[in-house]
Amino acid sequence: MTSEKTWIGRPVTRIEDGRLIRGEGRFMADINPVPGIRHAAILRSPYAHAAIRSINIQEALLRNGVLGVFTGEMINRELNPFPVGVSAPVNYYPIAHSKVRYVGEPVAVVVAENRYVAEDALRDIVVHYDTLPSSMDIEPAKGQLDPSALLHEDILNNVASSRRFEYGRCEKELKQAEVVLTNRFRYPRNTAVPIETYGVIANYESHSDYYTIWSNFHGPFTLHSVMAHALKIDTHKLRLCSPSDIGGSFGVKSAVYPYAVLMGVVSKLVRCPVKWVEDRLEHMQGSSSATQRITDVTMGLSCGGKITALKLVQYDDVGAYIRAPEPATLYRTHGNLTGAYDIRNVLVENYAVMTNRVPTGLIRGFGGPQLYFPLERMIDIAARHLGIDPVDMRRRNFIRIDAFPYTTASGAVYDSGNYQAVLEQALEKSEYNHFRHQRSETSGSLRYGLGVAAVVEPSGSNMGYVSLAFTPTERMAQWPKSGAAAAATVAIDPLGGISVRLDSVPEGQGHETVARQIVADALTVPMDAVRVIVEMDTATSAWTVSSGSYSSRFASAGSGAILGAAQKVRDKLLVLAAAKLGIDVSTLHLHQGWVWQDKQKTVWSLRRLAGSIHWNPADMPKGIEAGIHETCYFTLPQVSAPSVDDRINSSAVYGFLIDIVKLAVDIETGQIRILDYTTVHDAGTLLNPLLAQGQIYGGIAFGIGSALYEELVYDNNGQLLTGSLMDYFVPTISEMPKHLKLSHHSTPTELTPLGAKGLGEGNVMAAPAAIANALSDALGIEVLHLPLTPQTVFELMHSHQRKEATRT
Amino acid sequence: MLKVKHDELATLNMAVNGHYYRRAVESRLLLVDFLRDELGLTGTHVGCEQGICGACTVLIEGVPARSCLHFALSMKGKEITTIEGLSEWPQFPAIAEALSRRHGVQCGFCTPGIVASMITEEGVSEEEIDVLLAGHLCRCTGYVGIRQAWQDILAKKEGK
Ligand code: FES
Ligand code: FES
Q1: Residues 98-157 of B with CB under 8 A from A
Q2: CA angle A475-A480-A486, nearest 5°?
């Protein structure tokens, strides 16, 4: 047999680039898929918490060019509230009617002949509000809250969901531990800030009651049923389409769905197709964000540094409504709560608390940064307490290489890994030991610090993890949920043209390129013989609830579906060739687009076989259908529903990474400069190393932003203070360290057909922890919250000095 | 000095990508909206409308500028080049090739604006690259691939 030159694993440049660099991408704002589109603008609440006394739309209706003005009351009459992921009675609609619960919440919608006129008319609408006290605390009040500060009637103290889980004997171990350490950490509310904002076009057809909605929604498509339920229609009447190009999302665009429903109803009421493109202020106020989290960590240890018990009390600020898929931020990492460490006694208390802030949702890392910032900080704090080197502390607690496959206390199955080896490689790459000796050096007002973070990176989310928010008894009454399935279709046209259709709805990750690599390999054709279609259309694409791009699921699930579909096509062609040739199929294989029998080229090419399927179907051997259009749904079987004892394998596969940061902090200005950043990943087999590198660089930039700059700041009344990109600081090239070192130490997984694990989120989880560890090291002060702005650094030093002063 | 009310139409004569246009526009219409909505040149993107992100960068009289910060009417008699025009320039293929080879493009939303800065700033030093790129937000790439692509182009020039 001839060995094939394969495309998978090679740093192939991207097919997407050609159109994007020329400005020929097709983003939401660029497309007008139906004629007669009119433009919507949204009036939003200026208050965080207020009753709506009256809305007067008369003036707005009279304005030249206005087609319709609709209040929350008029719109919500057409809707059911969105189903939510908890049993608490939260009535969440895409627009407020009797009361507003966050600044930026939609209150009315204007449709006009263009956006300028629509915005003019917003100013004509008069709303009278009675303001109410804002509820901004995450930690639930100890006593009873004043009823006026409750966001939703009947929800005591604004707690939407709470659950407690104990694995092993955590309480007991904590009582007996030689050392017990406790700390409270705060992870800030930050957000994704894709450069493209939300966009929606909705078209309602009254004769059929069909809604077709184009948007930059990228899944999870579980939300398709949530949207159909809200619209009071059967699911087949809702057709969701996403364009080929989405200008970044990093999770946040999954929460465009309430706006898709909103515009759907508006299109129905105004009787024409409606387009809405969000502006930047709207995006900062009213799209979505990560949860802010307070974590109380209690760690039990032996004097030798072995962690014996870990207790986490997590309070997530989910904003004004607990919007599906929340409280998922609390559960996405449930299986891997103990990170890279062998800890058998674990206790977790989770609280999802509602506040007068924008509702939360997916943001790159989703639950990971909230977990690893406290966990990895705590490892360093414990190390310092016990006089152990932080690297040694990690070595002593890592899951050992011979323990794989390893099942964590809370139920994740880590199938493969070699954490020690990744760590050693990172130490060497970063010249850790060399830097460690310099660490005590100071120069003028500069202090130097070194920080490490170890992160188990989950990818391919289990659709069942969110149901952990329900008790086992509550779950028993529901249908079980599980899996991380993906779908793809490979087709060959009558003259041999190959196309692949994906359900992964990429937002810049380069799925078209990787799909081409996979299919070209499977069918032994040149890459440019394969056309990849990434537009999503729920009426014509193969898809399922877990479709979409989130939880780094392309490498773990999507690639398996593409390979599966291509193999189905290959197998069909070979069976047909075998029948035509009258020989055993097991002797046949494809090579360079032809069917070969062992070392002998046959007369059948892929193109000719495909042609005969299309042009001569009457002559098909028995059992072979005409046409060649094969779909594969791929899932990983071990991604099962939560067990009755609340354990869950919350993700399909688990990668690993070590980040090491060297930084300098100026104690006079509070400025932090990252001098050197090293990251070593175990993401299994890399499908395309060039794209993997891009994901890692992007992830580091994102993680540096969360560590040092980014926070959606609200004042005590719930006013957003960071509504523009002047106030909410996204890293520019100047904030990127010049010395970035990347490498890989791969232990391929046998769970995915190509051996790949996800890798797009790991650095977002690791960077905040590694940077905070480095700053603590530089200052000798424990960092307990983010972002580490100059002001935070200043406050850290001053409160420390005050403490020192009172001590002496 | 031009005097028109905000929703009154006034006549605009300008050149875009070498074509002459004569249009009646509202005085408040932004250049970026004019390019995208009136002329259908959707390669110029809007990320903030506040002059921060750089996604809307085009050339006005050959100089990179934020098209969200200008009124269309103020372009009277001027020459604008958008990405649709830039992609015909002789320097363009080398830039496109370098960006792709270095993986300086992910979602591509920021890219046309960045190309407008790259193509006009050919003779910059390595340090100046960072200064110029700091005027563009990219949330996907961490800027590494973009910086490398620009450095490659410089290196090639100097090599010649
Ligand atoms: S849209 Fe012009 S700078 Fe952002
Ligand atoms: S490539 Fe997505 S913003 Fe730059």
Answers
A1: 99-101, 103, 105-112, 115, 130, 133-134, 136-147
A2: 140
